[in-house]
Specification:
By secondary structure, the chain is of the alpha/beta class. The chain has helices at residues 14-26, 37-46, 63-72, 90-98, 111-126, 160-171, 179-186, 196-208, and strands at 6-10, 30-34, 51-55, 81-86, 103-107, 136-137, 140-143, 148-151, 154-155, 177-178, 216-219, 223-226. A hairpin with a 4-residue loop joins strand 7 (140-143) and strand 8. The radius of gyration is 18 Å and the shape is elongated. The structure holds calcium ion.
Length: 233
Amino acid sequence: MGAVSSVLIVEDERDLLSLLDFNLRQAGFETLLASTAEEALAHVRRRVPDLVVLDLMLPDLPGTEVCRRIKGAERTRNVPVVMLTAKGEEVDRVVGFELGADDYVTKPFSVRELTLRLQAVLRRSTAAPVEAAPERVGPIRLDAEAHRAFVGAEELPLTPLEFRLLSTLMARAGRVQSREQLLADVWEMSPDLETRTVDTHVKRLREKLGEARELLETVRGVGYRLVDPAEKG
Ligand code: CA
């Protein structure tokens, strides 16, 4: 990794906050700390971090709301968010993904596992796509260098993960992709991420595609396929 990446850690349990602070600094990150949603949002306003680790149960606002605000602001929508969830917070996790969170880790977790996840998320957000996608599939157009996607003249508000998912589907337009394949290639496979994660993100991507949404087909029991209307005959 070239430049030092900054990570904003949002966690109200003091012991856990210190533990994460210490270990992530050991792993080479620059850390910023917040123990409330308000502090987290104030940090983000001052300076955009490279990554956010976000606890879901905070004393002032739910973590999902913090995620919504980060992903909703033009300036910060590309900042990857990794959520810390407790067992039994399944619903919040799904909500978090729908709001654009990039990954999650369930408590209790090992710091090593979290560190590996963060490094993977950072790689994904800066990495070139898995394979070169065509510039266009039907009305969908990619600007790979700028990491921007359009349908017609409309720019799609995609997160880095959604951009990667879309460009992978475009590179393989016309071919069915299984959930497992997409998990391995787009997410670089977090072993305990369920294939449902793929479904949640595809659903979100499809909503953002607007008039091009019908091109992203569900192939029942198998996975997904982006249809190239030029090849459909
Ligand atoms: Ca908490």
